[in-house]
Amino acid sequence: MKDVLFFDAMLTPKIITFIYWLLLLGAVIFGVSSMLGGYDGITFGKLLKGLVIILGGALGARIYCELMIVLFKIHENIKKLADKQA
Asked: Rounded distance, CA 39 to CA 27, Å?
């Protein structure tokens, strides 16, 4: 608890993992709703569009969250270098 209260440990990487799962869930929900939306039922075009949304959303969420984690890893490594020099 002391690490979190005094900013000795980063809390945000744990939050990014949670956000990643929310983004995945959102991509699946949005993709499935685009498949089922409308009055003409499921057509091949809507099925394909929904699959592209799901796969693209999952890939986009993964890339975004990985980039955020990389930033925090860079911060940790710079902190280790600074502590080593001090």
From this structure: 22
